[in-house]
Amino acid sequence: MHYYLGQLYDDFWHESKFPLNNIWWHSPEKGQNSMGFLSEEFDSCADMVALGCSYTYGVGVEESKTWAQIIADNKNLKYHNISGSGRSAQWAINNFFSYVHKFGNPEIVVALFPEFTRIQIASNPKEMTTKYIPKDVEIKSNIIRYGTFTNKRTGDKYFKAPLIAEETFPTETSFDFSLQYIKMLELYCNSNGIKLLWSTWDKHQESWLESNIDKTEFKNFISVKTWEWHVREQDNFYERYCQKKHSSIEVCNYYEKCHEEYEILYGDNFYRASDRREGKPEAHWGVHVHAHVADTFIKHLNEMDNCERQ
């Protein structure tokens, strides 16, 4: 280190205040509340809190038709969305603990986590930095906090400072952190009588969890069956719902029609997200997928309610 430890402690303590001592995302923009979230103002604890990244925040659809908002409407719950685009499971859970520290425990927590290779970290930029400094990162001290997507294996190499975080952190590191944070979330909710349901939109993670959940300690995972959706160029990159598993979705000419009431209201946004561009299949979900994800959470919440009544 090129600076004395007292300075390191002071700087790191300052940066670590977010999010554990605060509930804040970024400076608010149009449609957001004063804390920068796409939600109503936080004046007291809500009945239900939603955690996640952009799929929960609502990128690509109207706020009223995100999967979490559909749940809240169906269950007639006061609801707060404390998710953030591009954020990790670790960030989402930290944000949840900031929320309960300030407002108290909700009755229900629903979460849709991203791939576990995302991680939020802090470092001295002279020692390690990120390829792209996000616009909401303010360099106020010798420590910066930022998010990265780990996808590198370092191997046996010698490094010269500053390290590049995306090329330094092994995937296993962020994956392990995500699992540990989810375990802490489950333990907290189960110890405090909070109904928790969580899933992931990452197809590979969900497939593994769906097949191996009995081998894990997780008790609150549910599958939203992301494999049931086909997105293909020949379908104009529309999201097609099909419950059959195929070795190649290109051979499938079958899809199920449902939720027609949303199709009438939202048109093209029913089939695909507003951020999906022609020729580029990478995008968020349209209203139809949000409706199905909401249906799955509602089904499991109703089962939990029935168990309580028995």
The main β sheet shows up as:
4 strands, parallel
Second rung of CATH, namely the architecture:
3-Layer(aba) Sandwich
State the strand order across the main sheet. Answer: 2-1-3-8
Number of domains: 1
Which class in CATH terms? Alpha Beta
CATH topology, by name, is Rossmann fold
Topology as a string of helices (H) and strands (E): HEHHEHEEEEEHEHEEHHH
Poorly predicted spans? none
Cα separation of the termini: 60 Å
Helix content: 25-40%
* Shape, per Cα inertia axes: globular
The total count of helices amounts to: 9
Tell me the radius of gyration.
Answer: 20 Å
The count of β-strands is 10
Arithmetic mean pLDDT: 85
Strand content: 5-15%
Kindly name the structural category. Answer: alpha/beta
What does this structure look like?
- The chain is globular.
- It has a single domain (5-225), classed as Rossmann fold.
- It is α/β, with parallel strands linked by helices and 310 residues long.
- The protein has nine helices and ten strands.
- Helix 3 crosses helix 9 (287-309).
- Strands 2-1-3-8 form a four-stranded parallel β-sheet, with helices on both faces. A two-stranded antiparallel ribbon has the order 4-6.
- The protein has helices at residues 5-20, 54-57, 67-75, 89-103, 171-191, 203-212, 260-266, 268-271, 287-309, and strands at residues 48-52, 79-81, 108-113, 118-123, 128-129, 144-149, 163-164, 195-200, 229-231, 239-241.
- Helices cover 35% and strands 14% of the residues.
- The mean pLDDT is 85.
Give the helix/strand layout.
Blueprint: H1 5-20, E1 48-52, H2 54-57, H3 67-75, E2 79-81, H4 89-103, E3 108-113, E4 118-123, E5 128-129, E6 144-149, E7 163-164, H5 171-191, E8 195-200, H6 203-212, E9 229-231, E10 239-241, H7 260-266, H8 268-271, H9 287-309
Parallel strand pairs: 1-2, 1-3, 3-8, 5-7
Antiparallel strand pairs: 4-6, 9-10
Helix pairs in contact: 3-9, 4-5
